[in-house]
Every structure is written in structure tokens, then in C-alpha cells.
Amino acid sequence: MTRRRRSALIPVLIGVGGFAVASLGIGLLAALLDAASAGTGCGGGGSSGGGPAASIVLGPPGSGVRVGATEYGGSGDPSSGVIGSSGANLLDYPDSYAELGGYTFQTATAMGGLPYMTPLRITWGSHSAIAYKRDIGFGGGPIDGFPRVIDLWWELAGRLGIPYEDGMWSGPVQIERPPNTGAASLLGQNPTEQAPQASVTCTSVSTAGLPITEGPRATLLPDGLAAAPADAPAAVKGIIAAGNQIVGKPYVYGGGHGLPLSQVAPSYDCSSSVSHLLWGGGLLPATGDETSAEYESWGLPGPGRWVTLYASAAHVFMYVAGLRWDTHNAAGPGDGSTGIGWHPLIRSSAGFVARHPPGL
Hints:
Radius of gyration: 21 Å
Structural class: alpha+beta
Helix content: 10-25%
Number of strands: 15
Distance between the termini: 33 Å
Number of domains: 2
CATH class of the largest domain: Mainly Beta
């Protein structure tokens, strides 16, 4: 297959052919994407000038236009590097994509020549995410009959559930403009102008009044609430704040499902409670309704630095800054309340799949 490398680095191309866009109708695609307004995917809030850092915000699958996409970066694709043509370190901004078509900003116009930080909703299968243009690339021939127009940073691809194939994956995805939230403006007037880099992740729940601890780990308080580490990312503080909202809620199988995550439900089960916390950190939309089995493929594989989910077909629990969120005291005596909430002890992870949010 044709591989693509970014023009910001030494290009390495294998069998690159002519770039074809006629079958898509580039005028239609450009009309769809032109003048896109920056959204944040964080429930109406946002950071000026770009998308949330170190997070990937999911949404329901979109309709949009079907196009050919490739994956790049990661351990199997080291020649791509980690610095996008916008100057952003893509490891810090995993919600990134590249517009293809040429080796410069002026020639990489497969989607009409989008400004840096243009948001797009990208859908693969049943997973969808808002991502931001921070890179460009040459591209190649059509993929499954669709013109190759977009390259997905490997962490973004993983968040969408796309298998990592040493940076060699290719396939069709759907793209569309997200709604205009009015939260931020694009810097598209000057192709060489770069968007300012956001430094924190936006959250979906207020962290005002959140208990804070100076230690490196979250602390369980006598009232069952958790105190967040002072130096934790904003997303982690949002997760803890959302957990504190529902500590002690009764466990009911199926409880909390079918309701917006922004609404505090009368009861929860394991997956709905975890979803509420992830919503609080800006990592799920209010419409999210994942099951424990779906969390087996959520995010990236392995434990995270701040947040790790352990999922199976029957149950999901998570660690946030070293404190376990669970629906019962599975670690035995001394593990706190039998209800939904924070637990101080580590339980067995046998039979569970470890996953973590990108960047966390």
C-alpha cells in the first residue's frame, strides 16, 4: 500500500501514486468543510484557539462524507516523528489529523485547504471523535475506491477503535463538520499562522470546591469523597469531581443507562458510573452510554499514568490518581463502603482488560 510521510520531516514514500479526488467531488467536500468553526466537544465550553489537549472527546457516529484514511505515527512508524507541521507535539495532542494532498500547506488541499485547528468529526464503525488539523501530508492513491484525503494520528486512530498495524492501516472513514459552538475562532486567514497550544483539558463538570491534596495521589476523605492531587491534569480533577457527585448512589443493574451523563441519576451500575466520571473529565459526550464490554476496546491499551480502566464483559472499574472507583468493596475488609464510590485498596485485575484515555 502507499505510505505517507509528513513534509515537516524527511519524506519516506513507498510506491506513491497520483492523488485522485475527482470521484469524491472535491467541490462538495470543500463546501462541507469550508469555514469550519472550532468546537471543543466539551459540552459547550472550550479553550481559545483549539481543541482540548491530551484528550479525545467521543460523540455519536456521524453521517458526513465517506473518504479514504490512513494511520501514521507510533512505534511501528518512527520516521513520521511526533511534531506536526503546525509545530504541535502530537503526543501532547492525540486528537490530531493531517490533511493530505501535498508537501506544503498550500498544496495539501485534499479537503479544500483547511486552516490549522479546523475541527472535524471522524467516524469509524460505531466510534466517533472530534479531531483537529495539526498536520499535513502528501497522501497517495484511492483507498477502497475512496480518495485518500486524511491521515489519522495513531492515538486518535486507537481511540476510534482502529487497529494499530505499524502505521500501515488504511480504510474508509466518515467526516463531517461539528456544530458551531461559538467557543473559539480559527486562525485560517494566514496559512503560516499557528494556533496557540492549549495546556489543559476542558472538563464537563465544575471543579470549584473540589477538595485538593498536595500529595501525588488522590486521597479518600472520611465522608467518602475524594481529594484530587493539586498537580493533576484538569481532566483528572473533572473525573474526581464527577465521582464525588454520585458517591453512595445505590447500585442497580442497568441504572443510569439511557440518561444524559450530565444528569445525576437515581442509581447506577458499573459502566454507567464510570461513564459519568469520564464525562466529567471531558472524555465522553453527555450522550455516551457505553457498556462494560465496550470499555474493553475503549481508549488505548494498557495502564495510564493517571487513569486506568479495567473492563470485562461483566464489569468495569477504574483507578484515578491511585484511588479505585468501583461499585462494591471487591478488595475485602477495609475497602470502604459496599456502595458505588471511591475505594482505597487494590483489587485483582485477573480477567480484565486494561485501557486508558490518551494522554492520561
